[in-house]
């Protein structure tokens, strides 16, 4: 039993490797900021494009959304980081990871927004237009607030997936949390840094998971 504790829950090793883990956590936070906020904005624009009555705008948005939802994020990441240099486009690990995850997650956000907009009853549009609001004003002040409220648990769930997805960045040697934990493991010959990384992820994401569950129960009620 003591050998198991020493190998997986060695507090001394955890304390010594904590600075490296915090540096990895900071990189994870920067990566999330570079993906989540632009992804939410880009997803909304894609959703509006998907619902546009203009064919020249709707079809490219639909194709974009379908392609990047279908492509596995790891395949997309490796293609951007290792494949594009053959075309003369070389990116830093951070830029490659941010771009790959942004393309992937903005398409998922788009589908969430689209379902939210479609969930708003047509009568809401008609009632708003009857008060003198134009289409843009109706969408901004009446439809979108209801749509976002309806799909808020899905938006939060997708954001949780983004945070977990950042662990794939270790594939291109970006020093995020998982990569830092694996480096600490290789230095200490001990699995405790990996356990510490898992505990950090749990501490970050468990409150958000509980928040999502609370929103889902409230919406169901």
Description of the molecule:
The chain has 221 residues and is mainly alpha-helical. The protein has one domain (2-220): MetI-like (MetI-like fold), CATH 1.10.3720. 82% of the residues lie in helices and 0% in strands. It is built from 9 helices and no strands. Helix 2 (11-50) packs antiparallel against helix 3, helix 3 packs across helix 5 (93-119) and helix 5 packs across helix 7 (135-165).
Average pLDDT metric: 86
- Secondary structure: number of strands: 0
Order of helices and strands: HHHHHHHHH
* CATH topology-level name: MetI-like fold
CATH superfamily: MetI-like
Shape: flat
Distance between the termini: 47 Å
CATH class: Mainly Alpha
In the CATH hierarchy, the architecture is Orthogonal Bundle
Residue share in β-strands = under 5%
Radius of gyration: 21 Å
Q: Main sheet? A: none
Tally the structural domains: 1
Helix content estimate? over 70%
């Amino acid at each position: 039993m003591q050998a198991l504790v020493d190998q997986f829950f060695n507090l001394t090793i955890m304390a010594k490797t904590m600075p490296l883990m915090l540096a990895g956590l900071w990189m994870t936070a920067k990566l999330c900021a570079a993906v989540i906020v632009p992804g939410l904005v880009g997803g909304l624009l894609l959703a509006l494009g998907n619902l546009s009555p203009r064919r020249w705008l709707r079809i490219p948005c639909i194709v974009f959304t379908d392609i990047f939802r279908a492509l596995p994020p790891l395949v997309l990441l490796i293609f951007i980081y290792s494949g594009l240099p053959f075309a003369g486009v070389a990116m830093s690990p951070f830029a490659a990871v941010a771009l790959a995850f942004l393309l992937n997650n903005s398409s998922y956000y788009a589908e969430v927004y689209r379902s939210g907009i479609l969930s708003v009853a047509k009568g809401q549009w008609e009632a708003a237009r009857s008060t003198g609001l134009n289409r843009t004003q109706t969408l901004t002040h009446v439809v979108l607030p209801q749509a976002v409220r309806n799909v808020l648990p899905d938006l939060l769930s997708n954001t949780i997936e983004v945070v977990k997805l950042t662990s794939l960045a270790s594939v291109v040697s970006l020093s995020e949390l998982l990569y830092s934990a694996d480096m600490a493991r290789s230095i200490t010959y001990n699995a405790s840094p990996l356990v510490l990384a898992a505990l950090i992820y749990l501490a970050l994401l468990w409150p958000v998971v509980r928040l999502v569950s609370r929103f889902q129960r409230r919406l169901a009620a």
